Amino acid sequence: MDKRFEGQTAIVTGGGSGIGEAVSRRLAREGANVIIWDINDDAIARMSDEPNIRGRKIDVTDSDAVNAAMAQDANDYGGLDILVCSAGITGPNVTTWEYSDADWLKVMNLNLNAVFYCNRAIAPILRERGYGRIINLASIAGKEGNPKAPAYSASKAAVIGLTKSLGKELADTAVTVNAVAPAAVRTAIFDQMTPEFTAFMLSKIPMGRFGTVDEISNMICWLASREASFTTGAVFDQTGGRATF
């Protein structure tokens, strides 16, 4: 396998499971030093046994913790090169008028605020370094809106807006900022959804199947590589034909 990331250091939030795990493993296999930021002790322990992967327990919804950890990791590794923000939750599958304040804030804190905190903390580090890659996990729900998923849809739409804004702000550097917007991918996040909602999502995909974590990680790792040098502020669909714009 190519060693596209030899000598580089990557942070992957939510790197202990799902898409984040697949990305972490792929980056590590291709030579990167990978630091996974997660809150699951078992996942951190399991992933830390892998070559080139180190786990850090951190609540990415805590801006002070994010700032401190980003500075510490940059110091420990002599700089940072890649940030992949993949930590996220779906929230309950209920209508907007049934959605509670607590559930709304919980989804927004992890899916949006945490992405902002991480992007904000690494941007000056990468800008000073003169190179870097930021990839944020959005969703087709952020472009089309899913019924009975108002907070998830709104948070992912906001991630797209944040990505486009930061990408333009850093466009005079070799730091790129992009988002990936998958349709449903079968991971543990499905446990948060009702069977009816899962069936609805499948019905929207012309290919008639869910995506795989490897398919999504392939795109993310290309965006994280030096090959993606003329792409920034963009959103890449991986939807099995669902996306129409």
UniProtKB/TrEMBL annotation:
EC number of the protein: 1.1.1.401
Database matches in SUPFAM superfamilies: NAD(P)-binding Rossmann-fold domains (SSF51735)
Keywords carried by this UniProt record: Oxidoreductase
InterPro entries: NAD(P)-bd_dom_sf, Sc_DH/Rdtase_CS, SDR_fam
Any matching Pfam family: adh_short_C2
Domain of life: Bacteria
GO MF annotation: an example: oxidoreductase activity
Family classification: Belongs to the short-chain dehydrogenases/reductases (SDR) family.
Name of protein: 2-dehydro-3-deoxy-L-rhamnonate dehydrogenase (NAD(+))
Species this chain originates from: Pseudoprimorskyibacter insulae
The encoding gene: LRA5
